[in-house]
Amino acid sequence: MFARVYGATILGLQGNMITVETDIANGLPAFEIVGMAATSVKESKERVRASMKNSGYEFPMRRITLNLAPAELKKDSTGLDLAIAIGIMVSSGQIPPAKTEGCLFVGELSLDGNIRPVHGILSMLIQAMDEGFHTVFVSEENAAEALLCKDMTVYAVTSLRQVIRHLTEAKKLEPAAVASVAPEEHVYSADFSEVQGQFLAKRALEIAAAGGHNILMIGPPGSGKTMLAKRLPSILPPMNLQESLEVTKIYSVAGLFRQDRMMTERPFRSPHHTISSNGLIGGGTIPKPGEVTLAHNGVLFLDELPEFPRSVLEVMRQPLEDGQVHIARVNASLTYPARCMLVAAMNPCCCGNYGSDEICTCTAGEIRRYVRKISGPLLDRIDLHVQVNRPLYAELVSAVPQESSAAIRERVLAARQRQKERLAPYHLVCNAHMGHRELRETCHITKEAQELLQQVFDSLKLSARSYDRIIKVSQTIADLAGDRDIEAKHVGEAVSYRNKLQRT
User: Which Pfam family, giving just one, matches this sequence (predicted)?
Assistant: First the structure.
């Protein structure tokens, strides 16, 4: 008898509906799975056989042929176990075919018939709703994530026996319900009010947050670079619904989603400098998201920037420019979102004391080699370079209250609102995302500011990319000040944040 049920897998961040076609015929007992099944799917034969027997149901000792369509798509997910088991039950006449119409079955089976969770449920269900499915059976651990899809009827099940008894109407299940959750209020453990002094660095971080710009902090050890970076999320604007959905899907696919609501706090990722290229941008035989994608719509913090292998840093160029990562492998070619703020920190030299009050023990050659670990093209993609000096004793012991993150955030939100209104026709949300066309059409530069830009361009021998980035930062400074036009004072401040590294 022929039967058709549906499961799902993911490829990249996209959910894919898999048609599980089962045919049971007379002949010598056999169990064949066709349709580009990976090893993890082929091994499901033994999991399904054992779980059916241990759940008290008959496994048909006949010739079983199972096809996973579309056949050209590589299937690499243990989440198809439940759909395969239900397909065999329908094909062998133990479940009426009509009971599975419009239903999706996603879960990994254990040998005793229990159902285990899988990654990427949210992506699967979003695609399932688009294709007209109305009911899904998932493990209890996946239920909270599945309930984010409001229009799906979700059954949270613990065992194969529960699913079969529901479909045969031996014991009906109640749909899972959304738990009543109080509105979430973000209370950040780190606040800018705890940072004494460092007014220049705070100003630069405020500009970076207001315009979504990349920033590099350069200073001796202990000057507070890491402390400042960790407080940046506390002044960023909240994510909108679309951004929250994107981030939640990414973390679901990566297996890092551990809550019962969509993620609303912007990600902050801080990988160690021993990370590989694949760990940073994603990769593998079946590509998985890397740190750049996990930081999408949030902050990617690279501490001790020159300690990262140069080959790893160079793969950052395209994501910083395009906001996407393109990964091509034999099995798949995928595009992951990677629109994040890069926040980097480094010492000015090997010993860290160059340019400070302490004595630098590095030779000129050592300083040059240390700084040249970071390529010019990569530095050119970082909008703001700020010097972070060690705080003075008087600043550390001062009793004068420092400005809080909440106060800074108000200015950032006001600036973002101006950008949102100005860039609405282009479907952009902040100045850092503008291209050259948007710059020409939306940025109004006064004559004095244009003259200053010409002087800076000629004297510093800037590239076209640097020119555009100075205008973007200038526009952000104008937005923070509430000014419509870019004036000379805005350009002057933007230029002061250009490359601070001595590379010669």
Answer: Mg_chelatase_C
Beta strands in 290-359 (DSSP E): 299-302, 324-328, 333-337, 341-346
Range of the structural domain that residue 341 is part of: 192-409
Q: Is residue 91 part of a domain?
A: yes
Confirm if 300 and 258 have CB atoms less than 8 A apart: no
Domain assignment present for residue 364? The answer is yes
State the Cα–Cα distance between residues 409 and 192, nearest whole angstrom.
10
Buried b / exposed e along 249-285 (16+ C-beta atoms within 10 A): bbbbbbeebeeebbbbebbbbebeeeeebebbbbbee
Predicted pLDDT of residue 504: 41
| CATH code of the domain covering residue 396 | 3.40.50.300
- Residue 257 in tokens: 């989603």
pLDDT at 147: 92
Beta carbons of 418 and 479 less than 8 angstroms apart: yes
* Backbone torsions φ then ψ of 118, nearest 5 degrees: -130, 165
131 and 97 part of one domain: yes
Distance CA 57, CA 357 (A): 78
In a shared domain, residues 95 and 235: no
324 and 219 fall within a common domain: yes
Low-confidence ranges of the chain (pLDDT < 50): 503-504
Q: Nearest to residue 453, comparing CAs of 479, 476, 474, 484?
A: 474
User: Are 386 and 500 in contact, with CB atoms under 8 Å apart?
Assistant: yes
- The two most distant CA atoms of the chain are separated, in Å, by 89
The DSSP bridge pattern shows strands 299-302 and 341-346 to be parallel
Note whether 155 and 38 are same-domain residues. yes
Distance CA 22, CA 80 (A): 13
Sign of CA dihedral 303, 304, 308, 310: positive
E strand or H helix that includes residue 477:
helix 464-481
| Two tokens, residue 301 | 């913090």
Q: What is the DSSP string of 444-475?
A: -B-HHHHHHHHHHHHHHT--HHHHHHHHHHHH
Number of structural domains in the chain:
2
CATH number at residue 125: 3.30.230.10
| 387 lies in the same domain as 297 | yes
Residue corresponding to tokens 């984010």:
148
The residue type of 503 is R
CA dist 56 and 117 (Å) reads: 22
21 is a domain residue: yes
CA gap 434, 422 in Å, rounded: 11
Q: Does 235 share its domain with 351?
A: yes
What's this model's pTM, rounded to 2 decimal places? Answer: 0.89
Q: Is residue 470 part of a domain?
A: no
| Distance, CA of 183 to CA of 310 (rounded, Å) | 44
